[in-house]
């Protein structure tokens, strides 16, 4: 782990100590304040129990799940470090280390939390995401959020999730669909590195409804408004395995760098004439 990232792990309590932010124990979130218009989120890789919190039951909740996305928390930290190394600046990042069976931050509060003990963890995650998105829009004008997940299907496939393009609406409106699935898009670059993307970048089929984008990309992408676009990447087991994590992190960082050079601002908005 890089020194800069470690420092942000340690200061979670001070970041959350403001009157408008919930307080949670150290080690339950990794957060990183960024210097780029890029945000990385990983909500489902955590393995730590929330103290004094019962497991969620999910009664009456559609698509209820408690299984964690193995290794996506550690992978996300590698992605943050790889982007910093590639682009010589830090992206924003938030990674959950608490287990999904206690709080699911990729659901609405009503669906993701069933205990008062879990609520501060949920709120802390979203407070940082909201703050990061606002900072990117204010400082850069537009940006990209990548939400990392894992699936139990084909081990080498990456399913994209954008609510069938709705969470990247601003990007497509501004630059056309090529910015979403073309050669210099994140998805296009991952395909060029040999990864299997579903739906294929050249296909017109709809996204797999099981992996088509959850609460985070729908809330913080450009589906309703705003200029931060969001892509959920559902990674097969082999892609996110410990054996391949360094390679994937490097490849994703390279893909993000190509995308950023083509479609994101090179300077902060207030620095531009």
TrEMBL record:
Give the top-rank taxon of the lineage listed in the UniProt record for this protein. Answer: Bacteria
Key words of the record: Signal
Q: Which residues form the signal peptide?
A: 1-16
- The protein's name is N-formylglutamate amidohydrolase
Species per Swiss-Prot/TrEMBL record:
Limnoglobus roseus
Lineage here is: Bacteria, Pseudomonadati, Planctomycetota, Planctomycetia, Gemmatales
């Amino acid at each position: 782990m890089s020194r800069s990232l470690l420092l942000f792990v340690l200061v979670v309590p001070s970041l959350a100590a403001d009157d408008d932010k919930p307080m949670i124990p150290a080690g339950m979130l990794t957060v990183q304040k960024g210097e780029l218009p890029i945000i990385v989120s990983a909500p489902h890789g955590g393995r730590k129990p929330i103290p004094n919190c019962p497991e969620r039951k999910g009664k009456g909740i559609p698509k209820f799940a408690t299984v964690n996305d193995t290794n996506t928390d550690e992978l996300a930290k590698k992605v943050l470090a790889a982007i910093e190394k590639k682009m010589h600046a830090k992206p924003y990042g938030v990674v959950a280390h608490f287990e999904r069976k206690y709080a699911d931050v990729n659901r609405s509060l009503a669906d993701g939390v069933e205990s008062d003990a879990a609520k501060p963890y949920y709120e802390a995650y979203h407070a940082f995401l909201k703050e990061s998105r606002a900072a990117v829009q204010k400082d850069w004008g537009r940006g990209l959020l990548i939400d990392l997940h894992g699936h139990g299907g084909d081990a080498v496939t990456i399913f994209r999730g954008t609510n069938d393009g709705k969470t990247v609406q601003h990007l497509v409106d501004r630059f056309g669909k090529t910015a979403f699935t073309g050669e210099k898009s994140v998805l296009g670059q991952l395909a060029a590195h040999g990864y299997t993307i579903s739906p294929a970048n050249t296909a017109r089929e709809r996204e797999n409804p099981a992996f088509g984008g959850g609460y985070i990309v729908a809330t913080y992408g450009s589906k309703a408004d705003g200029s931060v676009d969001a892509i959920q990447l559902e990674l097969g087991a082999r892609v996110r395995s410990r054996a391949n994590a360094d390679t994937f992190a490097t490849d994703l960082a390279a893909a993000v760098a190509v995308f950023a050079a083509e479609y994101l601002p090179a300077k902060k908005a207030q620095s531009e004439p």
